[in-house]
Amino acid sequence: MKIENNVATKALLEIDHNIDELVKQIELLSYVNPTNIEEEKERFFASKYLTDPVFKYPNINFDRFKLHRKLFENDLELIEDESIRKLYEDIIYQYSGLIQCIETIGSGKKFYYNCLHCFGTPTEQDVENAKFILHFEEEKKNEGIFETKYSSEDAKVFFKEYSKQYDFDYNIEQSDKISAIAMVLNNIQTLVLNSNYVYSDNEIAVLTHHEIGVHMVTTFNGVIHPLKIFSHGFPNNEETQEGLAVFAEYMSNNLTVRRLKELAYRVIAVDSLAKGYTFSKTFRLLHNQYDLDRETAFFITLRVHRGGGFTKDYLYLTGLKKIYDYYHQGKDLSLLLTGKVTLEYADEIESLISKGLAINAKHITEAYAENINTNKTVDFILKSLK
Length: 386
What we know:
This protein is mainly α. It contains 17 helices and 5 strands. It has a 3-stranded mixed sheet, covered by helices on one side. Strands 1-5 form a two-stranded antiparallel ribbon.
C-alpha cells in the first residue's frame, strides 16, 4: 500500500527519522555486561560466596544529557493520528528511561530504580508461577541432548547452517565478556557467542530457534519499514520479544522442563533483588536453598545483579505465557514478527500497516510453521500458569 503523501505523514516520518538518529547509540546490552566477569567469579568463589563481586563496565560513548534534550525536542503535536501520537509519546518516554538506565550502570540503587521504571518487577503471581514450575522433575542431566561438547567455534557452524533458510546476513562474534551464553545485538546485526561456554545439542537447538529464528528475524523485519521505530523497538518490547523467542523453542520441540526451571530461577532471583538481597545472598538462595550448581547459580545471579539490579530477566516467563495464550487463541503470530514490537500495540501495528507506514513480516520464524512439541509436561505447565 502506498504511503499517503501529506503534511501529517511527512511530519511523522521526520519525527521517526529524528528518533532513529538519536537512539542508534542506545543498546543497553552493550553497556550492562561487566568486562571482568571471570576474574570476579574466581574471587567470589574463593571468598566462599561471602564477598560481593565488584564489576567493571564499558565506557559510555554518547552525551546523555544532549540525547535526552533532543528526544524531547520532537514536536509530536504535528502527528494528527491520536493513537500514533500516543505511541510516539510512549516511545520517547521509553528511550529516555533507557538512557537513564545506561547512565546509571554500576551505581547500585539508581540503576535498579531506573530498571524498575523500564522493566518492572515480578508480581506475587509471577513468583507463584515460578515456584509452581520448580515442583516438576526435570530431565536427567546425563541424557545425551544435555551433554556439553561444542565450543563457541563449533556452535558458529551450527548457526551458519541453520541460517541458510533465512534470506539475511549477519555477523557472528565471540566474547568472554557476556553474561548470557549467546545474545543478539540488534543495532549492529550481530550474534555474540560466549567464548568460555561449552554447548550441548539441546542448547544449540534452543539458541538457533531463539536467537536466529526470532531475535534476528525481528531485527531484519524491523529495518524494512518506512518507520524506523520497528527496528529500534516499541515500548516494553522485551517481554514480547523474549516470549516469542522461548515460544519458538516450544514449537520446535526443544523447550524442556530444565529450561522452564532456568526461567523460573530468574524470576526468583529478580524477586530476591526486589527484596533487597545482595549478590552473595541471591547466589546463596539459589545454590543452597534451591540446590543449583554454583556455575549456574553464579550466572543467573550475575544476569540479575549486573549494573546494580537488572530486572528484565523475569519477563521471559511472563512473555512466554502471553505468547502461548495468544497462539492458542488462534491469533496471527506474524504480526508480532514485524520488528521489535509489543503485543499490547497489536492494533496500532495493524493500523500502521493499513496506512502504508509499515509492512507485513518478510521473514517468518521457521518454528511457527507447525507445532511439533511432544512434551506433555511442558504443555501442562504452560496451560496451568496463571
